[in-house]
Amino acid sequence: MAYAFLKTCGMHPERIDLDASLDAFLDEMQKGLDGQPSSLAMIPAYVAPTDSIESGRKVIVIDAGGTNLRTALIHFNGKKLVTDQFQKTKMPGTQGEIDKDTFYNCFADLVLPMVEEADEIGFCFSYPAEILPDGDGRVISFTKEVKAHGVEGTLLGQELRAALAKKGVTKQIGVVVLNDTVTTLLTAQASYPTRKCGSYVGFILGTGSNTCYVEQNAHIGKLPALNEGAQIINCETGGFNRMPLGRADEILDKKSTRPGAALLEKMISGAYFGELVFHTLSLAMEAGILSELKIDRSLNTKAVNDFMIIPEDTGNVLGAALAEKSAKERELAYWIINGLLERAARLTAVNMAAAILKTGAGSNPMQPVSIGIDGTSYAGRYFYRERIEYYLYDMLRVKRGIYYDLITVENASLIGAAVAALGK
Ligand code: BGC
Fold first, then answer.
1. Is the CB of residue 374 below 6 angstroms from any atom belonging to ligand 1?
2. Cβ of 274 less than 6 Å from ligand 1
3. Alpha carbon nearest to ligand 1 atom 8, residue
4. Which atom of ligand 1 is nearest to the CA of 128?
5. Mutational pocket test of ligand 1: of 39, 131, 180, 265, the residue with most ligand atoms within 8 Å of the beta carbon
6. pLDDT score for 51
7. Strands 43-44 and 230-234
8. Which of 105, 113, 158, 233 has the most CB atoms lying inside 10 A of its own CB?
9. Which of 323, 318, 270 is nearest to 295 (CA)?
10. Burial of 196 (0-12, 13-18, 19+ CB in 10 A)
């Protein structure tokens, strides 16, 4: 019954054809690289993987994530990471709309106490930003429902320096802006310095979702002046839009801050999955197969996950609402959510496989493609990792003879941002 219902609203997992979606993904990636219209921004990061990390020099790191803003003063003692003055607060713009001055002041206040101790800042910015060859980053847009008025279009490094100058800082501090997928890739590489890999990918599935990989400069059609070497490309894969949307996807999209944008992210990432479950269960209520539940649009991914892990647990909104219903209804809700998770796993696997294939490496099992993975949803979501790995194994190893290493990393934003700042 759950599957038949999902099918009537176009939300069933098999609607995602793995091979066709993979082809569409690869095609969309190349279009983005060539500067043609594409739902994938394919942003050159002007950073390449590195195998040397300077020991002893201190750098400031900023990690502007989907939920939190973290800062620290970091150095490496040999290969060991040493973190000082660690601070954590809410990401500005996640608790209601703010303006540009408030946004940059928040960063400047956190950096101020460390500014005399370092000459470079590694700024991990988990939102789309165009990276300039000098390392600064221009904010393209906000995702994950963050609202910061007047910040889009501004240069992060330049504005941060200006905000620091207003607070009396005269020093010209260097700023290297990089996406969190790039820090993930760099951290996975730094974690196994002696491992010979064919190429590298960085993948995030947390509040938001995104992927980066290493591309040959000669293949970046929109940067014709570069033809030697390679660099990391931030694909902004959350924007992918060449998959079929179901009715709940359309409802969620219409109600979001940016309708039409970040469509893949809205189907798989933590910022949206709870709400997607809510809209789908609401459709089941409308169809008369589920009775009225006490849940609303604020249903979050964690509550859904807690319900899936222990369906009898009443410590979360969904479990509590379903505890009042019959076992049959609880089971129906379980299978509907399971279908949405299966669909998300199929899409996630296609996304990861496309990036691995796009590196052009991995045919030699002794030099696999390293895929660094960070993100709460990937590791913690109900029976998720197993499904993704199953699809990846089939799509890549079995059908295409491509070998890869999945490397889960922690604290990637801080480590990777420090590695990049030390490379300047
Ligand atoms: C952002 C990406 C980011 C990803 C994971 C997305 O919403 O657009 O830049 O890498 O979330 O944090």
1. no
2. no
3. 127
4. 9
5. 180
6. 75
7. antiparallel
8. 233
9. 318
10. exposed
Q: How far is the CA of 293 from the centre of ligand 1 (A)?
A: 32
- pLDDT tens-digit profile of 144-194? 889 999 999 999 999 999 999 999 999 989 999 999 999 999 999 988 888
370 pairs with which residues across the strands?
200, 405
All residues at 6 or more sequence positions from 88 whose CB lies less than 8 Å from its CB, including other chains:
68, 69, 70
Chain Cα centroid distance, residue 110: 24
Q: Decide whether any atom of ligand 1 lies within 6 Å of the 126 Cβ.
A: yes
Q: For the chain, what's the residue count? A: 424
3-state secondary structure 316-359: CHHHHHHHCCCHHHHHHHHHHHHHHHHHHHHHHHHHHHHHHHHC
Q: φ and ψ at 341, to 5 degrees? A: -65, -40
Given phi > 0 = left and psi -120 to 50 = alpha, else beta, which region is 114?
alpha
Q: Give the ranges where 61-134 is alpha helix by DSSP (H).
A: 100-111
What phi-psi label fits residue 383: left (phi over 0), alpha (psi between -120 and 50 degrees) or beta?
Answer: left
Distance CA 165, CA 258 (A): 34
Model confidence pLDDT, tens digit, residues 103-156: 999 999 999 999 999 999 999 999 999 999 999 999 999 998 899 999 999 999
What tokens does 289 get?
A: 């197969």
Residue 77 three-state SS: strand
- Determine which residue's CA is closest to atom 7 belonging to ligand 1: 208
Nearest CA owner, ligand 1 atom 9: 127
Q: Give the up-direction half-sphere exposure of residue 112: CA atoms within 13 A in the CB hemisphere.
A: 15
Is 239 near ligand 1, meaning CB less than 6 Å away?
Answer: no
For 150: left if phi > 0, alpha if psi spans -120 to 50, otherwise beta; the answer is: left
pLDDT band at 289 (very low <50, low <70, confident <90, very high): very high
- For ligand 1, is residue 13 a contact (CB within 6 Å)? no
Q: State if residue 179 touches ligand 1 by the CB under 6 angstroms criterion.
A: yes
| Ligand 1 atom nearest to 141, measured from its CA | 8
CA distance 377 to 158: 33
